[in-house]
Amino acid sequence: MEFLNRLFGNKNKSEENLQMILKEISNLSRPQDIPRKIMKLQQALSLVPRQFDPELWAILHAELGYILLNNLQGNRSNDIEQSIWHYKNALEVRTRRDFPEVWAYIQCILGSAYNSRIIGNKADNIEQAIECFYNALEIYTREGFPENWAWNQNNLAFAYLNRILGDKASNLEKAIDHYNQALEIYTLRDFPELWALNQFTLASAYRDRILGDKADNIEQAIIMYNKALEVRKREDFPEDWAITMNTLAITYRERIKGDRAENLEKAIQYCNQALYVRTRKDFPEDWAYTQNTLANIYFERIKGNRYENLKKSIGYYNKALEIYSQNEFPYEWAMNQHNLEIALGAYQENREY
To answer: What's the whole-number mean pLDDT along residues 161-188?
Structure first.
């Protein structure tokens, strides 16, 4: 809120009560302060007609847009809708001509809001996000704003990775291209965490890639996941480390090259490592996801006794269902129930022999 602090000394900017509200807003910085901060921003905005102070009016709209977009305490769907509305209002004053850098920044955030949007058609929301990100690149060039340019390349990559319209293969190629462009700036030396994140997401794009040789794409993904682990160490980033280990497990299950039996053994090892962090107590949803991954792997396992592998598979499906209830996770519940029935049938057949 530094941009508000500079307004405090000018009595012509607002009445005394507005000044008090703005000062209070500047002191509300803790996560638990967010509901009050939203209320105070709305109060301040009600005291600042656009014609009275268009700059402050736009600042308040932009700040409300940002707070609502990142608010985890309210109604997520409504907050995103309000965030979009506030950012659009801010853009009426923060135009490309008069405030090019601020305009570009708002385009980036607005694109992120559309990417996260719950209401409306998902495909259309992603298209709107892509448009916003390309708008920002009119200002955020690689030469003039390298970090912002890379940030936007990353945003575009994520949008194309999830794009519904257009050719799937082409969308994935665009995602890969944008991730690679972001990595021109996000180097291991200068931006290690962002470099690792991009290695991880780029690996996921290669896993899904349609063009090129499928086996080679999976090998490329494995290389990139392991690169991410150069930064995502368990002691420094336990949650990121765990998701990378779990994703490596899934990738080894899908692997085409190498010995199939050995690939599945590696997948089991990666899952078991992920569970050092993904405990039922601390991360119940992630724990259930890894239990489900183990269930799938043991169902396909080649080494060991088939009967015992199926028994373990059933046990892991049942563990996942401790979290994946029909009410809270209907899709995951249905998939696990379906796979569990198949495993039980196979188990019964093997038991008879």
So the answer is: 97
Residue 164 has pLDDT above 60, yes or no: yes
Helices (H) and strands (E) in the chain, counts: 16, 0
Residues 192-213 as b/e (b if ≥16 CB within 10 A, e otherwise) read eebbbbbbbbbbbbbbebeeee
33-37: Cβ within 8 A, 24+ apart: 34/67, 34/71, 34/73, 35/73, 35/74, 37/67
Phi-psi region of 166 (alpha: psi -120 to 50; beta: other; left: phi over 0): left
The residues, ordered by sequence, that sit 6+ positions from 285 with a Cβ below 8 Å of its Cβ are 323, 329
pLDDT tens profile 89-141: 999 999 999 999 999 999 999 999 999 999 999 999 999 999 999 999 999 99
209 Cα distance to chain centroid: 19
Q: Which of 76, 44, 39 lies closest to 60, judged by CA?
A: 44
Q: Is 333 exposed, middle or buried (0-12, 13-18, 19+ CB in 10 A)?
A: middle
pLDDT in tens, 25-82: 888 888 888 889 999 999 899 888 888 889 999 999 999 999 999 888 889 999 999 9
Q: What are phi and psi of 339, to 5 degrees?
A: -65, -35
Give the three-class secondary structure for 313.
Answer: helix
User: Out of 10-19, 74-83, 232-241, 272-281, which region has the weakest mean confidence (pLDDT)?
Assistant: 10-19
Residues 6+ apart with CB under 8 A from 268: 249, 294, 297, 298, 301
Amino acid at 114: Y
Which of 207, 147, 150, 220 shows the shortest CA–CA distance to 179? 150
Contacts (Cβ under 8 Å, ≥6 apart) of 9? none
